Amino acid sequence: MSAPTHPGIRTTATGVDTRLPWWALALPAAAFLALLVLMSGSGGAEATSGEGAVGQVLEHVWQTLSL
Predict the structure, then answer these.
(1) What distance in Å separates the CA atoms of residue 1 and residue 30, rounded to the nearest whole number?
(2) Is the CB of residue 11 less than 8 Å from the CB of residue 17?
(3) Which of 20, 37, 61, 63 could form a disulfide linkage to 24, CB 3.0–4.6 angstroms apart?
(4) For the chain, what is the total number of helices (H) and then of strands (E)?
(5) pTM (2 decimals)?
(6) From the CB of residue 57, how many other CB atoms can be counted at a distance below 10 Å?
């Protein structure tokens, strides 16, 4: 006798749930946004000079992608 399954869960032939919960995408996106905001903060340290941290990160990304 087989047990009834929940109608909202999609399973494959192996019986594994293939859907991601909403927080599986929301939490990494929120963490990335929080780190980006921290990097682009007001720059309380007066010893910094030149471009901001975001500019440096974008420059490194640009250099990496141009290889």
Answers:
(1) 45
(2) yes
(3) 20
(4) 2, 0
(5) 0.41
(6) 14
